[in-house]
Amino acid sequence: MTTVASDPTEIFIPGGHGTAFPVSKGQFLEIVDVEGQQVADVVAFAALDRREWLSTTHTRSATLRLGLEVGDLLESNWRRPMFKLVHDDVGSHDVITSMCDDRRYRLDYGVEGHRSCRTNLAEAYSPWGITEWEIPDPFNIFQNAPIHPDRSFGNEIPPGTAGDSVVFEVLMDSIVGISSCPQDLNPCNGFNPSPILARVLNHYDA
Ligand SMILES: [Zn+2]
Prior knowledge:
Layout: E1 9-13, E2 18-23, E3 28-33, E4 40-46, H1 56-63, E5 73-75, E6 81-88, H2 102-109, H3 117-125, E7 139-141, E8 164-170, E9 174-180, E10 196-201
Antiparallel strand pairs: 1-10, 2-9, 3-8, 3-10, 4-7, 4-9, 5-6, 6-8
The structure holds zinc ion.
């Protein structure tokens, strides 16, 4: 993928849909909450070996925190840094909960055939031969899952407003998957799934 700073690759993800695309070491990945209050479920696989993937578990073990802060390194299941958070307008992200899937809507809400992050990402990764069961737990960018004093956590309307973004420095050639979460039955996306914009930049001045 070849881009220049003045002409970035932009990938518009309609609310409730998903996509996957390659990024290269040295590039920057910006994820924009276009209208506000929208979660982006983000996963990634190493481009050279699909057995290596972006891991919330290993990242938590490295940062010893249940959120993300600027400067954090996001690690793979092989404990290698894949991304570095270099900019954050929101400061509210979830690295605990699973992505939504068709079972979630069927079992918890009695709804059949609802779009889900897992089916979005399975469809998006199909050109790379990556199947549903291989998709790891997500980094739920912009999600508001506050940690309570008793160590329970909530699921509340995200604080992000229109145009807020995060930027990651890409530290490993990867295939990134992003789902603009279709959840409209709880506060996760303000009850109104809306678009996410991804930009792949060759340069970024923090
Ligand atoms: Zn979802």
